[in-house]
Hints:
Layout: E1 10-11, H1 20-27, E2 32-36, E3 42-43, E4 57-61, E5 65-74, E6 82-89, E7 94-99, E8 112-121, E9 123-131
Parallel strand pairs: 1-8
Antiparallel strand pairs: 2-3, 2-4, 5-6, 5-8, 6-7, 8-9
Amino acid sequence: MTTPHTPTVFSAPTEYPDNAEFWAAARExxxxxxxxxxxxxxxxxxxxxxxxxxxxxxxxxxxxxxxVYSCSVTRRAGPTPFCMAYVTLEEGVTMMTQIVDCDLxxxxxxxxxxxxxxxxxxxxxxxxxxxx
Length: 132
């Protein structure tokens, strides 16, 4: 079976003071990940305090490269099929996202992916990934 990706526009994310830097970077085509200022470990989802040692955190740019950890093509929810996936970034964190710009049925666990951004309605673009 072949399920082509159909581009869709996502709803705009809600911007808050503590995630403003993340969305500003997304507008520039960059992905930021929180890192602990004390222990140095990255973490996702973004938090003010490190989940490993409770230290303070700051944003650092991510490579934008990763590997599919898990994925599922959804054909019933929404107007078009889409592929939800957990992608483990080179930095070591795993984030939930969508896989785009490919035959959705060809996405496999362990597949290398790269960052791209998908437009939203009147907001910053959403980080998504496509196969390398």
